[in-house]
Design goal:
With about 200 residues, the protein is of the alpha+beta class. It has a single domain (about 5-190), classed as Gcn5-related N-acetyltransferase (GNAT) (Aminopeptidase, 3-Layer(aba) Sandwich). It is built from five helices and seven strands; from the N terminus they run E-H-H-H-E-E-E-H-E-H-E-E. A seven-stranded mixed β-sheet has the order 1-2-3-4-5-7-6, with helices on both faces.
């Protein structure tokens, strides 16, 4: 890990940095971190991916409605994690993989995005630490995550496009516990926060 990596909360002035990080492809296939904010995939997703997603995410960031954390190497953006109220990520409710029971007020971490040359260098851990701090400071009672479990053995590495939710060990190191419901298609990890005394 380079010593000049810093991580901080997203602000309403960060669209230029976010856009620079996501590049012309919008991170992956025109997503612009809108995948879980659009109610469903299929035809609707085909209609909005790319320019429409970009416009909506720009409005969300500039209005302060998009939450997350950015990582920088010097002044250059190198990583992102989306974190916010679970209710903001409406597509999860229509997904057999991500649909889980959650209580009002719970927050979620749906995705990370790292610049390719900064992958596997500990940036995700720094972003997760900041995301946990953001959720705690904003009064979230608990934070949900949906890690991907890699297959074991050589030649079974998970491509980065499928590892956008992170891995179980990263969450475990940050104090998340495995709370996967029986029969769930994807692990669910939870970190609960102690309520502050009034």
């Amino acid at each position: 890990m380079a010593p000049n990596v810093t991580v901080r909360d997203l602000t309403s002035r960060d669209w230029p940095a976010f856009e620079r990080l996501f590049g012309r492809a919008g991170a992956c296939g025109g997503c612009w971190c809108m995948h879980f904010r659009v109610p469903r995939g299929g035809k609707l997703w085909e209609e909005v991916k790319g320019a429409k997603n970009r416009r909506v995410m720009k409005r969300l960031i500039e209005s302060g409605k998009a939450l997350g954390c950015l990582a920088f190497a010097g002044d250059e953006p190198i990583g992102w994690v989306s974190v916010g109220p679970r209710a903001d990520y409406v597509r999860m409710d229509n997904s057999r993989v991500f649909k889980t029971q959650y209580d009002e007020g719970a927050w979620s971490i749906p995705c990370f995005f790292l610049r390719r040359d900064w992958q596997r260098r500990g940036v995700s851990r720094l972003l997760l630490r900041q995301a946990v701090s953001l959720a705690r400071r904003r009064g979230a009672p608990r934070l949900l995550a949906y890690p991907v479990v890699p297959s074991k053995g050589p030649g079974h590495e998970v491509p980065s496009v499928f590892a956008h939710t992170g891995f179980p060990q990263m969450y475990a190191r940050q104090g998340f516990r495995d709370a996967t419901p029986e029969g769930a298609q994807r692990p669910v990890y939870v970190k609960a926060f102690r309520r502050r005394k009034a």
